[in-house]
Batch of 2 targets.
Target 1
Amino acid sequence: MGGSSADVLARRGEIMKAALGFDYAVFERSPIAFDYEGLMASHGLTIDDVRAIQRAAGVGGTPIIELRNLTDLVRSYAEPGFGARIFVKDEAANLAGSFKDRRASVSIHVAKERGYEGVIAATSGNYGAAVASQAARAGLKCIIVQEAFDSRHVGQPEIIEKSRLCEAFGAEVVQLTVGPELFVVMLELLEETGYFAASLYSPFGIAGIETLGFEIAEQMRELTGAPPTHVVITHAGGGNTTGTARGLRKAGAHETKVVSASVDLTGLHMASDTDFNRKSFTTGHTGFGVPFATWPDRADVPRNAARALRYMDRYVTVSQGEVFYATEALAKLEGLERGPSGNTALAAAIALARELPRDATVVVQETEYTGAGKHHWSQLAFARENGIEVRIGDPADNVPGTSIVIPERPEQIAVREIDLDRLRRSYVRNALEHAPEGYEPTPEDVAFLAEDSHTTPAAVERVIEELRAQA
Amino acid sequence: MSGQGACKQGDWVEVERVLLDPSERAAGLPEDTARQPLKMWVKGFARTSARVGETVEVETMTGRIVEGALTDVLPGYTHTFGRPPAELVAVGRDLRARVAAYRAKEGR
Ligand SMILES: Cc1ncc(COP(=O)(O)O)c(C=O)c1O
């Protein structure tokens, strides 16, 4: 590395083309617009094909469990007639312990079919274990590149546990200190090995998540006679929201409201060596959730197949303390020890269920496995060791990186709404900024931006005019 | 960097390597990150014997050869569940009581 970083980055396009086995350029329509549905259909797999691939891979078909005790807890303090039924899809039942197995299974299937010798993914999260597990089953070699340590060689216990699990599945784990140069390391490894890039953000990965939304609609029809009224989704890079929402639509669940939820980590810098270990969540947080929603094409592929803004009906945040509290409640009331990151949507669902009538149905769309390191006790102990105050109080007083406030009572769990119009505006600004200077958006571009941010062309035009007036 | 002080050829070990000196790091990093080197740790089978701190080549699980300073032999994991946080210990008891009280009131 070193002097060669710039050279490698300059070869980025051809490296990724070889490592993904197809060229994104054929989907580009203009400096702003591209054929999203064309990209998503390019693998030629129907949802039934994907389900068959996943069945063979030991992935999916996870149970939906009604959380009757938690529902009654919410009803005990909701207004009369309120307190929706809460369900959870137990994605921890997948082989490597999270919904990420769905994402990995399709990439590994494609890599195997196309004759790649191995796969590479850059991730510090559950996705690494998922890729390692699927690669092991398929007989493919696997390298996981992780941002694992701060400059003192201290790692988040959750990430260290993920290193361990990747190694347990036979992957080579490349552990790095904090910094975005991880991307260059990944490119160099792709070039050196000729392996397949099992990107989180390719159309293969997102196709793998569609089955999750599809199964939710199917299972809820069986359990309650209808698709759920609400699905709550722990949101970071946006694949979870995108794939689940697409799957719901493919199953005909057009009325279901898609609510994305992130842990609020406002104020912590994602590339900061000192902030690295002041985060008590490694995913499902606003540090990924907001930047990826407002500019998805920041990923490791030329065009991100995960485009959450297209699919969100609401985007809410909860605090770290509320998620730890919900995690403890899930274990003690429902006999399900999971998370904590994946329980972000659970904390949000507890708050949302209170606002909704009793006949509404809220599905928490995933769980993730827990264990030493990942467990909420470890996270809180680690937070304390890193100088973060942990106390009982009003979760509204939580300050990311400074204090974690555990609620005194469940009534205090509340969601904070993120204004989607504000996100749309910054998405449009980002799209214009990424186009060449002086480029005039065409009517087709405006139509694309409207679709990509789930709004009308007239609204996009208004934003463009406002941005112009400011400039 | 606990582990034993030296490895033999064929031992499962960890090596460390500096990939970028601070002066070579990407532009636009926060200052606290920019002043640190980018470091890497990789595990594999030692190709020769070495003492901790000495340079050694390893063959990784994918068969790649990586050179670095030996940091550990049979590197392991010590992460735990830890002690229960005092702030959470009563949550289960209290919530169970609330659900029970609610159901009693509803006559269930
Ligand atoms: C358990 C869990 N939930 C949710 C997410 C968020 O998914 P996405 O990044 O696709 O939004 C992740 C991934 O980071 C995860 O591991």
Note: Strands of chain B lie at 6-7, 12-20, 38-46, 50-51, 55-59, 65-73.
Target 2
Amino acid sequence: MAKRGPVLTGEHFLLGDFACAEGALASGCRFFAGYPITPSTEVAERMAERLPEVGGIYIQMEDEIASATAILGAAWAGAKSMTATSGPGFSLMMEAFGLAILTETPTVIINVQRAGPSTGLPTMVGQGDMMQVRWGSHGPYEIIALVPESAQECFDLTIKAFNLSERYRVPVFVMTDEEIGHLTEKVVIPPPEKIEIWERKLPTVPPEKFKTYQTNGDLVPPMAHAGSDYRVFFESLTHDERGYPVMKADAHQKLVKRLVDKIVLNRHKIIEYEEKYTNDAEIIVLSYGISARVSKRAVRMARERGLKVGMFRLITAWPFPDERVHELSKFVKGFVVPEINMGQMVKEVQRVATDNCQIQLVPHAGGDIHEPEDILEAIYQVHDGKAPRRGDLLLAM
Amino acid sequence: MQMLREERSMEFIEEEHYEELIELQVHPAEWAVRVDRIPHIWCSGCGIGIAMIAFIEALRELEIDLRKLCVVSGIGCTGRVAGYMNCNSFHTTHGRPIPFAIGLHLANPELKVVVFSGDGDIIAIGGNHFIHAARRNVDITVICVNNFNYGMTGGQSGPTTHMDGKTTTTPYGNVEYEFNLPLLAASCGATYVARWTTVDPRRLRVSIVEALQKKGFSFVEAISPCPTNYGRRNKIGDGIDEMRYYKEKTIIKNFAPLEEAEIHLGGPIVCGKFVDKEKPTFLDLVTQVIDKKARGE
């Protein structure tokens, strides 16, 4: 067989999970540590097959805690690294995510969401980890999470995830789901020179002046690697610019504020979403991942019935596009929010739409995708003014 | 002045330099220590510092480049070692230094990667990582300071606490069997296994030198007093008393059958080098696969 390089330029009929792996390889990822778990296993399998072809390292760890920790070590040795998992494994990884956030370690995590809680429905779809990715590790923080809706986007957004993680020195999550992960469809892989890759910023100061977290007024410090002329100080305790532990509230305030600010203040450069028919829309369906694809069908059905319905698809789930959703809330009768959980991202819509319009959740506990008819029915609820407003929900509690 | 101090500290080899060092007030370990982090947090009478000095002396002997050295620790008293070393210092989360170290090592095999942490960190919460790293024969060195309890959190029982041992969470005596670390490491496939107490820093240093040179998973257990917690609660006495106790109980028996290495309260402590063998490492085997692929096989 001809030797395959890291970028498989061309048109492929590719599994979503495989597309994530190919996106990683095209980004320069050369270290993968993982633990098999349905429905993300194909990402690991693809990496196990492909990494040796490009001189990279695949290691299957003893559990997800070890996997998510090993990729951090690899990042500090200079590699671009990744792991992939699903619900139960994602829960185990929360500790390492906190470590990555506090130590500003760039890495990428693919979460192929399945139906939970607990072991739940291992082989069936869910979108129940959307809040867990945002809040699951302890303490205050900001992360970046992207949601693909196709195999093509599994490829594209994994590259984007690597780029964002290198630029902002933060773990970036690709929050796909079982349906998208197990969907085989056309994926176009461009030639390497057409793929934009962002590399991490390295320090340039003389070694004796080096401090591991010296920001020089920027929000993101350059990152030194172990084995270079700089001696790294990596600290899971609250630390100062040198990386040295400081057990003081004001040092903690300073550090956490910068970690939050580097995402929040750069949100306009990070956030991406897709809008369709929102110019004249009276009702907007806001969704993401596989649910957005079903929603698009429902929007078409509504349009055929003469309803002015638009589509807003989250590509970046976190940070949430507060400003744009707030703006839209001023002009529409309401939002319809289908998601395969009992109401997670809808809470963000409620938060930013305030009392401007109605908000109708279309929940699904998981195991299957929505019927477009269920979404259409919710559209009619809003159309008829029967969907709740934020204030109504607060009163009902 | 700082440069001179570091140079003098690095040059220190024989006792003939003692007087000059004393005059300059330079500690012979200064070349390898982040001096701006001293004083350390350890209690007087603790053995972690002795283990760290034995490690630094081993580094000096092997002329290891501190820029290529990674010391990875977890959480606990021994977990502070990484942060005092003037190399690449990694203070990770509780129990996770081994998987972190594996990532460092595999992503850049030119690094010398050492895990330096305590028994609670490596054997209790990190026990699963320990056994699998040994099984894979990952080329890292693990130095485990064993003080038979969780010192930093005030002296709770752990998997190395002796049966009947008194800790804050075993006020009536421990009712669990103790882990035998050399037996555990050896049975999981470690290619180098040794144990010494901190009463014996020279033999400890020799073992660390051998462990650092070993290609494969090497393990050195350093048994340390914990006068503030374990020694006091078990009426062993202060640091000196505990050192005397270890000296009295130590039996040196290289390549002893590892069942004999079990430690009971008041019983003998079998020390020595127990395993020293060769076999391909995880990276050797992975590299073979990569090379095959590169040849188009």
Note: The CA atoms of residues 30 and 202 of chain B lie 19 Å apart.
